[in-house]
Amino acid sequence: MKIILGIESSCDETAVALVTDGRVILAQRIASQDEEHRPYGGVVPEIAARAHAERLAPMVEATLADAGLGLDDVDAIAATAGPGLIGGVMVGLVTAKALAMAADKPLLAINHLEGHALSPRLADSELAYPYLLLLVSGGHCQLLRVNGVGDYTRLATTIDDALGEAFDKTAKVLGLGYPGGPAVERLALEGNPRGVPLPRPLLGGAEPHFSFAGLKSAVLRAYETGQYSKADLAASFQQAALDCVVDRTKRAMAAAGDVTALVVAGGVAANKAVRAALEGLAAGAGLRFVAPPLKLCTDNAAMIAWAGVERFALGLTDPLDFAARPRWPL
Ligand code: KG4
Ligand code: ZN
């Protein structure tokens, strides 16, 4: 059995996990920085980096203690090396390098997006390559054909905002605070999804790309008319976004060729309406639908450790001078 220690610090979650190649999460801890960033309505990079630096080392110790393990029991150290807020990424990567050096263990420099992309395989041992992945988070909105570890065909991306960003900006317009996605989802349950006429950017477009900036602006304009309730605005926004996601994913399904499943991952995959809509789409096409459990959707270290498990099994370790990458497309 192999045990990988994973570290995540690319945005506003400080997270540490221990995961085995038998898909067991031995221990995991997540410290959210929501309280620190809430007054600013979004993540402040400098505050995030400092909070990661304060919390990470004690969290590594505590997570090992939770599992009753020492650093010597671990086979390799995996950390997010990008993309993300560079200060936080550097805190996590440097910590991983120090641990790897001290314990003489290999380092695995993980692409955060690969962590999201492979996370469904941690929860589902049956999920085989290749699969069609909708990766929707605060910073990314892509449709990928996941062919194998490190082998991705990007079928679509967003030409402006990411889906999570659209949720967050809508939440800001409606005064729902930060983080916005879950708040919009909650309020949408009380509203009429057809109550506010909103655009569906790129719906029906030949390429499966996304665009959400126009939708977000339309929410702002509708809000400013004072004609609509916040619940109707939230519900109508979510419905418009969903219509786009389903249409774009359908287009990508036609372009992807043979795949074993339709898979959704990333923070927005925690949204139940998104999951239900995609499940319906997959069922209609006779395709399996896979979504990781909610706590594996938003940023966490188990997905980083799992990507480490997959890379370690292929011998894909990294040198100690691996540089953090603020931008790092899959
Ligand atoms: O993957 P993630 O935790 O961090 C990034 O790598 O970006 O994703 C965070 C994003 C945020 O935009 C957040 O508002 C969104 O995921 N999100 C949701 C929900 N939970 C998180 N969006 C809609 N509905 C949710 N339930
Ligand atoms: Zn993420």
TrEMBL record:
Which parts of the chain span the membrane according to its record? none
Alphabetized GO MF terms: hydrolase activity; tRNA N(6)-L-threonylcarbamoyladenine synthase activity
One Pfam match, by short name? Answer: TsaD
Q: Which family does it belong to?
A: Belongs to the KAE1 / TsaD family.
- Ligand binding (substrate): 135-139, 168, 181, 185, 271
Q: Where in the cell is it found?
A: Cytoplasm
Q: Which reaction does it catalyse?
A: L-threonylcarbamoyladenylate + adenosine(37) in tRNA = N(6)-L-threonylcarbamoyladenosine(37) in tRNA + AMP + H(+)
Q: How is the cofactor bound?
A: Binds 1 Fe(2+) ion per subunit.
Function of the molecule: Required for the formation of a threonylcarbamoyl group on adenosine at position 37 (t(6)A37) in tRNAs that read codons beginning with adenine. Is involved in the transfer of the threonylcarbamoyl moiety of threonylcarbamoyl-AMP (TC-AMP) to the N6 group of A37, together with TsaE and TsaB. TsaD likely plays a direct catalytic role in this reaction.
Name it: tRNA N6-adenosine threonylcarbamoyltransferase
Superkingdom is Bacteria
CC cofactor: Fe(2+)
Q: Which NCBIfam families match?
A: gcp_kae1, T6A_TsaD_YgjD, T6A_YeaZ
**Keywords linked to the UniProt accession:** Acyltransferase, Cytoplasm, Hydrolase, Iron, Metal-binding, Transferase, tRNA processing
Q: Where is the Gcp-like domain?
A: 25-306
Q: What are the binding positions for Fe cation in this chain?
A: 112, 116, 299
Q: Which organism is it from?
A: Novosphingobium humi
* Record-listed E.C. numbers: 2.3.1.234
Key word ATP-binding present in the record?
no
